[in-house]
Amino acid sequence: MQLGMIGLGRMGANMTKRLAERGHEMRTYDPQVDSTAKSLEELRDELAAPRTFWMMVPAGAITEQTFQTLIQIADAGDVIVDGGNSNFHDSQRRYAEAKERGVKFVDAGVSGGVWGLANGYCLMVGGDADAVAQVEPVFLDLAPQDGYAHVGAAGAGHFVKMVHNGIEYGLMQAYAEGFAVMEKSEFELDLYEIAGIWRYGSVVRSWLLDLLHNAFEAEGKDLEKIRGYVEDSGEGRWTIAEAIAEDVPVPVITAALFARFASREDESFAAKVNAALRNQFGGHAVKAAGVKEAE
Fold first, then answer.
1. Annotated catalytic residue within 104, 168, 219, 272
2. Is the pTM of this model over 0.85?
């Protein structure tokens, strides 16, 4: 099918390539890189109705600006997909605004990072059934087998992805703290070797552990090239806020978020592990050791 991809960063470019390799007719727009269109209006004109626009741009102001432009230029029956990490409340509002104009809106939580091109992307999709069905050929080719689901009404896709990322915070922090304990111990432990053997038969084996093993191989067992400064992109905060609203205790996710806050003030090996993992699975930039932020 035809698809207009808006945003050709780390994720959007690889998703475009994966879909093109599977026979989809891709049209693109990104003002920062070479694209088939020089504007959203030109992108619209390159697509046959009913059109599908996929926004793969940073959550917040850029997504809002792009969405507002699209609902002005789209025709009734067109679909707008938001594949970024938007807050699900914003997705519910955008769904309602689009519906008033006869435009369909789908929120797609996407997980897979820089590895998605080869391995596929896990997709958690929210929206009306007819809108989702219109885009489903794309969802099926982006995802690995059994890695895609229409999880609920508008906003549900981004809600599930929000919780997914909150869980991710906790898993990463558990690895970070465990390896920090071993790094400080009286034993001369080879952390690269331990991460390696834990991948086989251990109850803590996981893809994150595979990535940590890769990080030790690339950066050295002391991760000396990486500053232990860990950002958060908002989903952990939103998960905790929703948990508070629902009276659900989430102490592990909360502690993991606070550990990221602490990493920006004090250097720690646990924070180095966290930073290395974010770089491995998502291609997120790491800060070089010894480089401090400007006051």
1. 168
2. yes
